[in-house]
Specification:
Cellulose/chitin-bd_N, 6-stranded mixed sheet, 9 strands, signal, 196 residues, monooxygenase, alpha+beta, 2 helices
Length: 196
């Protein structure tokens, strides 16, 4: 009898460990692939020496409430997650940039690996005079998003696409995508370098 109880407890321990292991991977959630985000560039190997983000592109999750709350200045692209700090490194302004045209209608795409009830998707862009050789701060961004897509608490699909008009800009800029979750205290952050 004692052997059966011991075996049962050991089995339950293995099940618990398996649940913890799988819930750890379920922490992955989503990222932009159009325009391509820094985390995806690392994940597909286009950009090297990215640290842990190369294995976890959908995991850039930080506090929601941007811009009044959220990741600290200089740590926005990593969502404030230290192990993803390579995303905050401007690399001398050498991050590959998606070619875009000012005023064009552009389709933004997110790849969603774990669906969450969603408040909205918001897109911010850097101000004129932005220096791509410096880490991103709030002062670098226009104060209002140029596109907000309300979601009303609905669950997104495995991909989400929506269109908006790109602002009138020239030169190299950065678009910050923020996917705000409605039923947690977090949001997902994706920095995409673009060239107008």
């Amino acid at each position: 009898m004692r052997r059966k109880i011991t075996s049962l407890l050991a089995g339950l321990g293995l099940v618990g460990a398996a649940l913890l292991a799988t819930s750890g991977t379920a922490q992955s959630h989503g990222y932009t692939d159009s325009p391509i985000s820094r985390q995806q560039l690392c994940g597909i190997g286009t950009v090297k020496h990215c640290g842990q983000i190369q294995w976890e592109p959908p995991s850039v999750e930080g506090p929601k409430g941007f811009p009044t709350r959220g990741p600290a200045d200089g740590h926005i692209c990593s969502g404030g997650i230290g192990r993803f700090s390579e995303l905050d490194d401007p690399r001398g302004g050498a991050w590959p940039a998606t070619q875009v045209t000012a005023g064009q209608n552009y389709t933004f795409n997110w790849r969603i690996e774990a669906r969450h009830a969603t408040t909205d998707f918001r897109y911010y862009i850097t101000k004129d005079g932005y220096d791509p050789t410096q880490p991103l701060t709030r002062a670098d961004l226009e104060p209002q998003p140029f596109l907000t897509v309300p979601f009303g608490g609905k669950l997104p699909g495995s991909t989400v696409s929506h269109s908006g008009t790109l602002p009138q800009k020239s030169g190299k800029h950065l678009i910050l995508g923020v996917w705000t979750i409605s039923d947690t205290g977090n949001a997902f952050y994706a920095c995409s370098d673009v060239q107008f």
